[in-house]
């Protein structure tokens, strides 16, 4: 056993840092013990007890900081000490950014920011519910980004929120836009009179971006998390959000986004809509339009359509005019498909969709299913079409890279592109692939350099294979990433770029149909 | 500044400055009753985002944000981030950059006027439960419930825990010399042992007030044994020995004395101080008060 | 209605978790305070169980 140490004179770190770094240091491989404490007489005595009192410490003053590491051998002790000092330095950089007295709980945060009205929770799932309950008990609205929150706790939190009339956005809610503020992964969009309730994170991003890009705006974008519309949670969060938008004077048009809700939940929504007079557009992707009409909403078959319908309602454009515009753009899409199909070889047959956004992966499958038939996926519409191995595409394939098998121990694919970049090149080398389909969802919280990190991979893919690369970019010009620059980079690298997932998906379908896809 | 007399004789509104010659960029919300504004320039001792400790005329003055709160030697300013304070120049801290015209004086003296023993004790028990539940893992709250001892994991941590426990229990049993073994011990910029002593000093002061016993000499002796060259810690210890407390602790003591309903809130805020300071001071205060109630002062 | 109160007031956020969310809000000019959150019991399962029993939960 060997101990190594260092003395820091005249340097001050906050107490939190010292304790955390020492704990982290003790976890280094081969390190048996670590201490970072003031060089007082008594601490030196404790260091001696712990066999970490070095000669060089003997003359420290009460104001000096002692760093000591004990390890199984000299080499480990030396490297352990070095690592510890690095950790200390790193945390000092954080410390100048963070405060010594950062509130340690929601209660104390409330004292620092009186008038706080929203809590965003993104700690590990098993702790998130308790934090949410605290927030609700303090009469604060809540957004729970965390997933893997135990079911019973999820229900408890949603019920309490409903009882108290407070928003519970989540668990598993990635996106919300409240009072124009981007919460979680969200885009910077115009304010306006269209209010959205969404059980789909990237769905909210797509719809709000398209609305904003068309010149209209969002009053509120209320996320509920993907699990809310299931029977066991009864749409509790969704209903609170919907009621809020019905009552909100700023909201004139209401847009609803979700995968098809459980029938009981749909009925509850219908109940609430009975007394509503504002137009409601509902994109319950894949649901029977007749059902949607029956509860008093205008059905939209895609996120894009929901956005455009809402925009038309907001602008006061007639349905005829709206349909005319849709038809025109659809024809242009078909023309483009014809041209692009010519670039392909006979053996190229399949689409490989590699998605960052779960909702977009879902939407693309819904659209393509009717156009080209079976699509295999790790999140298939039909359980029979589940991929045996998510890491290997078969035939037409859509992969949601945000699913657990890809994200354990890694950042979300909207942040970390490396996994998808690798997969893109694999698909590009597969001669049976006609189209590689990519979604790029920008906005706050996501990768800040989507252009630099993806464009070269697109260029490389175009070199090693003959696939078409179709990219759908979700976002606005006000997002922190430079959207127009990104679009140009992808185009320059050889991709076909659209800014709407449904259009891009239909384009894909038209191309594959030209090849005899179905 | 160590010889404290009545605070109001030192400070009156008339002693607040006119506009300083430097541009004023922040305003003071409160100023501690032990601060003498005749001297305005000091040397920076330590600077964090929420606290700037300065030595002004030989004494410690802390410029703090409202998140920290008032204290006998605190100037609370209306800023949430002191890194932008233009009164800092290299090593110098210039108080002329603070506008004091609207500052109120914080009275740091502890006054426990009337008090039912049973009510105070039961309030103390409530505080004890709160501290046991909410204190951070490496705090001294394990002295209130030994199951918390398992939060100490590495060999060093367990040695710290055992030393603090042993020294504190000897001290509170009557060995005043044990102060010498408590001081400087444990984690933190202000070591945990010092915080235990501070908590005990305040308890002695409070007990003395309640029982109308003279405790000045005892407190003075403990302080002298406890002071070190750690100026920040020594400053806290001095004020504690004089029954002068910081706002969050004062609120808590006030709630303990008069208003049970406020205790949880006040405790949570006090426990938010430092990593373990609030918890360590509270632990010692609770253990001491209970001990004194049972058998009087042990020294 | 509490949701309408929210919509009509200045949004003030308490952030518990990923600091990037706080940064995004600050970039867009919103007030947010970061909670220096630690899992209870230092995240250690056994210790947390002990703490739960302690608290009678």
Question: What is the gist of this entry?
Answer:
The complex is a heterotrimer of chains A (518), B (299) and C (57). Chain B is α/β, with parallel strands linked by helices.
Please tell me about this protein's structure.
The complex is a heterotrimer of chains A (518), B (299) and C (57). Chain A has 18 helices and 19 strands. Chain A is an alpha/beta fold and 518 residues long. Chain A has 3 domains: 2-96, Gyrase A, domain 2 (2-Layer Sandwich); 173-317, Succinyl-CoA synthetase domains (Rossmann fold); 327-514, Succinyl-CoA synthetase domains (Rossmann fold, 3-Layer(aba) Sandwich), CATH 3.40.50. In chain B, strand 6 and strand 7 (92-94) form a beta hairpin. Helices cover 42% and strands 13% of the residues of chain B. Chain B has helices at 7-10, 117-134, 155-172, 179-182, 192-211, 216-226, 231-241, 247-258, 263-271, 277-295, and strands at residues 26-32, 41-47, 51-56, 59-64, 74-77, 88-89, 92-94, 98-99, 104-106. Chain B has 10 helices and 9 strands. In chain B, strands 1, 2, 3, 4, 5, 6, 7, 8 and 9 form a 9-stranded mixed beta sheet that branches. Chain C has one domain. In chain C, 46% of the residues lie in helices and 16% in strands. Chain C contains 3 helices and 2 strands. Chain C has a two-stranded parallel ribbon with strand order 1-2. Residues 51-57 of chain C have low confidence and may be disordered. The interface between A and B is large, with 42 and 49 residues. Strand 4 (118-121) of chain A pairs parallel with strand 1 (12-16) of chain C, so a sheet runs across the interface.
């Amino acid at each position: 056993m060997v101990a190594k140490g260092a003395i820091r004179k005249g340097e001050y770190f906050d107490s939190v840092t010292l304790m955390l770094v020492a704990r982290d240091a003790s976890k280094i491989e081969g390190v048996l013990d670590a201490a970072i404490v003031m060089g007082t007489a008594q601490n030196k005595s404790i260091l001696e007890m712990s066999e970490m009192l070095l000669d060089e410490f003997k003359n420290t003053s009460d104001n000096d900081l002692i760093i000591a590491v004990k390890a199984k051998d000299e080499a480990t002790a030396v490297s352990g000490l070095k690592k510890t000092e690095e950790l200390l330095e790193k945390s000092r950089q954080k410390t100048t950014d963070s405060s010594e007295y950062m509130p340690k709980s929601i209660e104390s945060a409330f004292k620092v920011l009186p008038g706080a009205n929203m809590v965003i929770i993104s700690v590990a799932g098993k702790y998130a519910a308790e934090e949410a309950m605290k927030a609700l008990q303090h009469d604060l609205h809540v957004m729970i980004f965390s997933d893997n929150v135990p079911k019973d706790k999820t229900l408890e939190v949603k019920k309490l929120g409903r009882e108290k009339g407070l928003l519970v956005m989540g668990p598993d809610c990635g996106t919300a836009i409240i009072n124009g503020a981007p919460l979680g992964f969200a885009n910077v969009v115009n304010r306006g009179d269209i209010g959205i309730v969404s059980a789909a994170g990237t769905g909210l991003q797509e719809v709000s971006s398209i609305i904003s890009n068309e010149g209209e705006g969002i009053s509120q974008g209320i996320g509920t998390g993907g699990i809310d519309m299931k029977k066991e949670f009864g749409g509790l969060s969704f209903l609170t959000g919907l009621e809020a938008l019905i009552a909100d004077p700023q909201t004139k048009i209401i847009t609803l986004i979700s995968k098809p809700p459980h029938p009981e939940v749909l009925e509850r929504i219908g109940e609430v809509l009975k007394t509503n007079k504002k137009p409601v557009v509902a994109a319950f992707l894949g649901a029977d339009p007749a059902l949607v009409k029956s509860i008093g909403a205008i059905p939209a078959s895609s996120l894009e359509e929901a956005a455009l319908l809402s925009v038309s309602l907001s602008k006061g454009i007639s349905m005829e005019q709206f349909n005319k515009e849709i038809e025109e753009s659809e024809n242009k899409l078909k023309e483009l498909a014809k041209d692009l199909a010519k670039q392909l070889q006979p053996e190229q047959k399949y689409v490989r969709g590699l998605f960052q956004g779960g909702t977009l992966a879902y939407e693309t499958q819904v659209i393509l299913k009717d156009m080209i038939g079976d699509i295999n996926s790790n999140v298939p519409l039909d359980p029979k079409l589940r991929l045996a191995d998510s890491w290997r595409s078969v035939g037409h394939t859509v992969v949601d890279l945000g699913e657990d098998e890809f994200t354990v121990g890694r950042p979300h694919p909207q942040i970390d592109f490396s996994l998808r970049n690798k997969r893109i090149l694999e698909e590009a080398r597969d001669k049976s692939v006609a189209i590689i389909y990519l979604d790029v969802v920008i906005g706050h919280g996501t990768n800040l350099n989507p252009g630099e990190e993806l464009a070269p991979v697109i260029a490389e893919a175009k070199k090693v294979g003959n696939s078409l690369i179709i990219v759908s970019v979700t976002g606005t010009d006000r997002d922190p990433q430079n959207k127009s620059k990104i679009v140009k980079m992808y185009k320059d690298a050889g991709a076909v770029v659209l800014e709407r997932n449904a259009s891009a998906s239909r384009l894909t379908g038209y191309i594959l149909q030209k090849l005899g896809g179905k | 500044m160590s010889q404290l007399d009545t605070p109001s004789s030192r400070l009156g509104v008339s002693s607040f400055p006119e506009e300083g010659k430097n541009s004023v960029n922040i305003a003071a919300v409160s100023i501690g009753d032990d601060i003498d504004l005749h001297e305005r320039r000091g040397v920076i001792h330590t600077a964090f985002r929420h606290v700037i400790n300065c030595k002004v005329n030989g004494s410690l003055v802390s410029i703090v944000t409202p998140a920290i709160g008032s204290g006998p030697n605190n100037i609370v300013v209306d800023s949430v981030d002191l890194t932008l304070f233009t009164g800092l120049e290299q090593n110098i801290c210039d108080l002329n950059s603070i506008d004091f015209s609207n500052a109120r004086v914080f009275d740091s003296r502890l006054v426990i006027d009337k008090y039912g023993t049973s009510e105070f004790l039961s309030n103390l028990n409530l505080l004890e439960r709160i501290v046991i539940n909410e204190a951070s893992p490496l705090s001294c709250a394990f002295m209130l419930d030994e199951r918390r001892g398992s939060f100490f994991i590495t060999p060093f941590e367990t040695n710290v825990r055992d030393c603090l426990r042993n020294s504190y229990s000897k001290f509170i049993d009557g060995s005043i010399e044990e102060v010498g073994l408590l001081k400087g011990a444990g984690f933190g910029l202000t070591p945990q042992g010092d915080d235990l002593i501070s908590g005990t000093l305040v308890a002695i002061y409070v007990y003395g007030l309640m029982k109308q016993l003279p405790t000045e000499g005892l407190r003075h002796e403990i302080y002298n044994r406890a002071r070190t060259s750690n100026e920040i810690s020594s400053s806290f210890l001095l004020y504690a020995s004089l029954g002068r407390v910081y706002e969050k602790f004062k609120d808590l003591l006030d709630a303990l004395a008069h208003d049970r309903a406020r205790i949880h809130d006040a405790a949570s805020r006090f426990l938010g101080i430092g990593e373990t300071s609030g918890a360590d001071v509270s632990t010692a205060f609770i253990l001491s008060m209970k001990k004194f109630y049972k058998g009087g002062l042990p020294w | 209605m509490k949701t309408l109160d929210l919509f009509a007031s200045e949004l003030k956020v308490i952030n518990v978790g990923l600091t990037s969310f706080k940064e995004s809000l600050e970039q867009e000019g919103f007030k947010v305070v970061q909670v220096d959150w630690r899992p209870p019991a230092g995240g250690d399962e056994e210790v947390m169980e002990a703490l739960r029993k302690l608290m009678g939960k």
